[in-house]
Amino acid sequence: MGILNVTPDSFSDGNLYFDRDKAVKHGLDLVKEGADILDVGGESSRPGSDCIPVEEELRRILPVISELRENSDIILSVDTTKAEVAHRALDAGADIINDISSLQFDAEMLPLAAEREAPVILMHMKGNPKTMQENPFYENLLADVNSFFQERIDMAVSSGIKREKIILDPGIGFGKKFSDNLNLIRNLRIFEELGRPLLVGLSRKSFIGKIVDQPTQDRLEGSLSAAVLSVSHGAHLIRVHDVAATKKAILVADAILNEKEWNNTSISETGENQRYVF
Question: Which residues contact residue 246 at a Cβ distance below 8 angstroms, ignoring those fewer than 6 apart?
């Protein structure tokens, strides 16, 4: 999953693709590099960030989504917590709703996703982007995240969202301490019992910077290492800035781990070595 932030203030690439033409070009470049999904977002969710009005979020992303859809058959994900934004993005050609609040911040998200039969990405986050890194604490991190996922899956299914449309994201860096992030990646397989594909977003994040002592733009090697280890521990989707390099690293790692060429198959269950696409 390639990241396309149409924002002036995202932690890594803020203001790089705020212009529509630059955003569309970058999105199409990511497709050429091998992205299977593009995740388009118009509101930064970096620690300490504030919400923006619906109208501004729509102004940023709708022209980009529309033009990407006209010029590519890539799967498009809209990264938003607002039902109106998700609704308009789906109308413009988006396929997936990626909601960092796990469909909690806006009461209309659950019925919207059910009505449109859109795949949804449910992420675990403690608090909200403004407050999430203010001394996050867990009695039992893995148990708490697992319980949260089960509750949100049950809520989604009871609201009419098909179970097979659900993807889970443990929320690396969202209300997590340094050690929490490492613990989650190390123990991703604990979530296999939930029977849904896992998405991991760790590209260039601060825990990597702490390990390698490098600024955001110089964390490629650390991001690749974390991505490969995430796949080896059970991740099915990796959300990244550096698509070409990450895809090559994962192709090699997955071929070694599975003793065969890496290959996407169906969103349905496909046996021991599952892959999921839409």
Answer: 203, 223, 224, 227, 238, 240
Distance CA 156, CA 163 (A): 8
Structure-token pair, residue 154: 């049950």
Catalytic choice (239, 247, 248, 275): 239
Please name which of 12, 84, 74 lies closest in space to residue 39, comparing C-alpha atoms: 74
pTM of the predicted model as reported, rounded to 2 decimal places: 0.89
Give residue 277's pLDDT. 38
Domain 2-258 has CATH 3.40.50.2300: no
The alpha helices in the chain, defined as continuous H runs, are 20-33, 54-71, 83-92, 109-116, 141-158, 178-186, 206-212, 220-232, 243-258
* Catalytic, out of 88, 205, 219, 247: 205
- Could you give the 3-state DSSP secondary structure of residue 76? strand
DSSP assigned state of 82: -
Active-site residue, 205 included: yes
**Which amino acid, residue 103?**
L
Query: Among 17-21, 123-127, 270-274, which is the least confidently predicted range?
Result: 270-274
**Nearest-angstrom CA–CA distance, 166 and 157:** 9
**150-186, pLDDT tens digit by residue?**
999 999 999 999 999 999 999 999 999 999 999 999 9
